Amino acid sequence: MLDRIKNIIGDSKYAYVRSFGCQLNISDGEKIKGLLKNAGYNFTDDETKADLIILNTCAVRENAEDRVFGIVGSMKKLKEIKPSLIIGISGCMTAQEHIAEKIKKSYPQVDFVVGTSAISSIPKLLLDCLNGRKFGVDIAEYDDFSEVTEQVRESKFKASVPIMFGCNNFCTYCIVPYVRGRERSRRQEDIIAEVESLVQNGYREIMLLGQNVNSYGNDFGEINAFPALLRELNKIEGDFIIRFMSSHPKDASRELIDTIFECGKVAKHLHLPLQSGSSDVLNRMNRRYTAEKYLEIVDYIRNKDPEFSLTTDLIVGFPNESDDDFQATLDIIKRVKYDNIYSFIYSKRSGTKAAEMSDFTSDEVKSQRMRKLLEVQREISSENYRRFIGKKMRVLVDDVSKKREGFVTGKSNEFIIVEFEGDKSLIGQFVDVKITDAMNWAVVGRKI
Ligand code: SAM
Ligand code: SF4
Ligand code: F3S
């Protein structure tokens, strides 16, 4: 199939692949690029130069979808200028029937739609388009999820490695279980082989991905398979760091935390999404932990290391969130002192349970709460980050700084942004930095 595409397109065609949403989707985008590369495509970052455009979409919030519809709308012009242009839509939006229908009906510039579990069908859909078919759809759930093909990775030193796909949790606000299906774990040996090969090829950061990495292996009937996987990966020779996300608090075991502390290559940072500080809201979100239970995990960690770095996700304005509920969230973030939070205003997703719930909170109140949350967190972060002044941090350099001339930027082991004087030759390297100053979004230091 790939050879047939190659024969038709030759070697001068360009593809533009843009991924939205979470790192799992970005990783899917890298797999799509792998398929396209094998079919003979080159890549461009300029959609006006492309012969093939694939938008790999996210459905987690309404504004993510609106953005994609805006972009697809604007692509009508590109197609008028270049009628041979092929446009495909992949990713989480396509798994919702009403969206696939809307695309088919209202966006005739789109040539094919492919579901999250049907990435391997892209060559077939593409070949059909090249042979003149008007519109193709494949949103079937194939079980080829684990080892699709080679990937074209965005970075030469940071790699995402999905360890599982789908989600079984059905948090009442969330569309992911509907668009990504049930949990399927990759085999431990396949993950280990992939990480070994990445490390041999110079990758310095391995980010293990799953909607809830703590339930990795449950579908094989294994318990605590995730900490066991971390321990195996920690044995791989080489200078690299292991990160992972996300970790659902309902399954964050002591074994997991002990493993983080005991494994030298595992980053000393935990992203532990809280969503709300109110046990009542957590119950209505179907999160299956209470605020107290969450704090028990935090205390277990902080008893081992009072300065351990924690980050979280929070939703503001869940249906009928009261002032007291919101206050409970503020109280928890002040108590836990996260180094960073990722906060979102609740977005109604049709088909989810929360979409049926009544809601008395106005949009204005939700926005006010969001502003307050960010203000409180800014103060916490600036105070928190001062704890690093005078200390040494090991930084994997990402890029040159966009904010300071002559500086580079990277992430420390604790997932803190660190900036220091240096040039682009340091990108992709670990550098020891002595911290001299702290802001509310980063720390600054000197290369040792
Ligand atoms: N599986 C991860 C977990 O449970 O922590 C979360 C993955 S989700 C893609 C990332 C974040 O998006 C969630 O933690 C939540 O804060 C946010 N989110 C999900 N659905 C949302 C919605 N309907 N409205 C606003 N934020 C939402
Ligand atoms: Fe969504 Fe909850 Fe699954 Fe995370 S655990 S993806 S928030 S349903
Ligand atoms: Fe990720 Fe968005 Fe899908 S956050 S799993 S790309 S809905």
Summed up, what is this model?
By secondary structure, this protein is α/β, with parallel strands linked by helices.
Structure notes:
The structure is a single chain. It contains 13 helices and 19 strands. By secondary structure, the protein is an alpha/beta fold. The protein has a six-stranded parallel β-sheet with strand order 2-1-3-4-5-6, with helices on both faces. Strand 1 (14-19), helix 2 and strand 2 (42-43) form a beta-alpha-beta unit. The structure holds S-adenosylmethionine, iron/sulfur cluster (SF4) and FE3-S4 cluster (F3S).
Q: Which parts are unreliable, with pLDDT below 50 for 5 consecutive residues or more?
A: none
How many β-strands, per DSSP? 19
Could you say which overall geometry the principal axes of the C-alpha atoms support?
globular
What's the overall average pLDDT, rounded? 95
Q: What is the helix content?
A: 25-40%
Strand order of the largest sheet: 2-1-3-4-5-6
Number of helices: 13
How many strands, what sense, and barrel or not for the largest sheet? 6 strands, parallel
Bound molecules: S-adenosylmethionine, iron/sulfur cluster, FE3-S4 cluster
What is the end-to-end distance?
A: 53 Å
Proportion of beta-strand residues: 15-25%
The radius of gyration computed from the alpha-carbon positions, rounded to a whole number of angstroms, is 23 Å
Structural class of the secondary structure composition? Answer: alpha/beta
